[in-house]
Amino acid sequence: VPRLTTEGGVQVVVIAGHFDDGTVRQAGAVQRPDTEPLYLDFHMPAGSRISPQVPEGHLALLYVYEGSIEIEGSPQAVATRQMARLSGEGQLQISSTHGARVLLIAGKPLREPIVQYGPFVMNTREEIEQALRDFREDRLTA
To answer: CA spacing 20 to 30 A to 86: which of 30, 76, 102, 139?
Structure first.
């Protein structure tokens, strides 16, 4: 899995998609043209900033698993075990006064119907019924 360190000292693990902050571009280990996933892990030292690019049309969120961050344009900080849903796309400005570890997760919406029953999630009721039959007849395979 590709790793890099920005000029500002932020360590970036590029799990999926591409990291792009305007100065560095790095492809991740996972590439899927159908959903264009973006999965980045930032290790931000105290006083650091990072400006990752979120692709146009993607839904995105930030999850802070250690420390806290500030997002430019947002009135409040995002603390440990909190998530922020991002609106829009483009350059994102994230800073951390005391240091943080953050996941940026984004992807292109599928815009497909979703049918859920118990642990099964499919696109149609017929697919759910087939999954239930397969489960009852012990035909589900990994």
So the answer is: 30
pTM of the model: 0.81
| CB-based contact 101:44 (threshold 8 Å) | yes
- Residue 59 shares a structural domain with residue 79: yes
* Distance (Å) of CA 41 to CA 74, 115, 129, 141: 21, 31, 38, 32
> CA-to-CA distance for 24 and 43, rounded, in angstroms?
16
Residue 101 structure tokens: 């570890």
Q: pLDDT tens digits for 33-45?
A: 888 999 999 999 9
Name the residue range of residue 98's domain: 3-107
